Amino acid sequence: MPWKETDAMKQRTEFVLRAFKTDNFRALCREYGISPKTGYKWRERFIQEGLSGMEELSRRPKSSPAGLSEAVVCEMIRIKQKHLAWGPRKVRNIYARVHGQTPSESSFKRVFERAGYTQRRRLRRREEAGRLQSGRKAQAPNEVWTVDFKGWWYGVNGGRCEPLTVRDEFSRYVLELRAMPDARTQTVRESFEKLFERHGLPEAIRSDNGAPFANTRAVLGLTRLSAWWVALGIDLERGRPGCPQDNGAHERLHLDIRKELQGPGLGEQEAVLEQWRRTFNEERPHEALNMLTPAEVYCASRRRFEGTPEDLSYAHMQSRKVGLQGQIRWTDQPVFISRAVVGWSIGLEPIGASERWNVWFGRLLLGQMEPSTSSFEPTTTGVGAPAAS
Fold first, then answer.
1. What distance in Å separates the CA atoms of residue 33 and residue 39, rounded to the nearest whole number?
2. Does one domain contain both 236 and 158?
3. 208/220 Cα distance (integer angstroms)
4. For residue 156, what is the DSSP state?
5. Of 69, 165, 356, 361, whose CB count within 10 A is highest?
6. pLDDT digit string, tens, across residues 181-218
7. Confidence at residue 358, expressed as pLDDT on a 0 to 100 scale
């Protein structure tokens, strides 16, 4: 049973005085109807504070937003106004970086709620989504870059603005945020050449199944752009058609862009996009990074970009160069492979004692060729041991 309500302080004082004399502390606690944990608490409080420590402490919080100074509240609101899409935790982190000591996260939440900046969200049950079979979760910078085009909007001059976004999966670092004049292969390739020159080469690039990154009607979805990536030694990863959750973190980046940039006169200007990218990388803390910024985590790749190779070579294989129509010649017969690899050599590897041959493009197994019928059967996975040298 707890302390009697009639004279709790007197009972506690009596208890702690007896506690210093008894040889059986637990028996004394049972006599007063309290647990040993409670008994030790009151004995320690008596040692630290004397008789005043026997009073029941108020459960009221020691501080609250109402008790914050006007200067503190104004600074909290100032940071929030600068970053309207950021939550209390990120704003508090920025406050701490500038001022050192900071109010609690709950204080930031209450201040923002009272100022009308936040609203309680309704939670929606989400159905569990499948995961990519070939997808990897990056464990270090430059293991996986993700790429997509942000949905378009009308810019300041009434024209369409559809930025290209490239992001390092591990560090969340936004490598590219640029309004492109078009989505043609050559235009996007030039942008990636500049990225590779600045940051080096990633191990893999993940995209959706749209142009110019993929072609659902081609073998392994290859396009001229993605074939170029493969020629540089970059693995390809793709989300499932109609499943944006397979690249969910990149979609989350697009949501931030939509909230903070999308609108007439905002995101079409290159300087505005670049300033947003720098703020996202260098100022915005991320919970998944232990409240570090992407710029504090990202570093350039050790795989330097040395230009596009003239061609690919294959160890212990025959090779054929793919002609302008996407075909190779085999015993004077044309065999169609893919227009995506025009101008590149493919590797031909005999399969045991059979008459069939594996067809490789870099480290991608494109399929198998049947020379007797001059036919090519594409694979659906592209899985195989590295074949290029």
1. 10
2. yes
3. 13
4. T
5. 361
6. 888 999 999 999 999 999 999 999 998 888 899 888 88
7. 92
Same domain? For 167 and 251 the reply is yes
Copy the structure tokens of residue 235.
Answer: 């693995």
Reading the block at residue 327, the tokens are: 């075909």
pTM for the predicted model, two decimal places: 0.67
102 plus 184 within the same structural domain: no
As a whole number of angstroms, the distance between CA 342 and CA 322 comes to 5
Query: Domain range holding 158?
Result: 144-297
**DSSP assignment, residue 67?**
G
Helix boundaries (H) for the chain: 8-19, 25-32, 36-49, 70-82, 88-99, 105-114, 185-199, 224-231, 248-260, 270-282, 294-297
Give how many domains the chain has, as a whole number. 4
CATH of the domain at 102: 1.10.10
Sign of the Cα torsion 300, 304, 305, 306 reads positive
pLDDT, one tens digit per residue, over 96-127 is 888 888 888 888 888 888 777 766 655 444 33
The DSSP symbol for 244 reads: G
CB neighbours of residue 351 within 10 Å: 11
Q: Which of 175-179, 265-269, 328-332 shows the lowest mean pLDDT across its residues?
A: 265-269
Task: Specify the DSSP class assigned to residue 181.
Answer: S
Compute the half-sphere exposure of residue 244: CA atoms within 13 Å on the CB side of its CA. 11
pLDDT for the residue numbered 385:
46
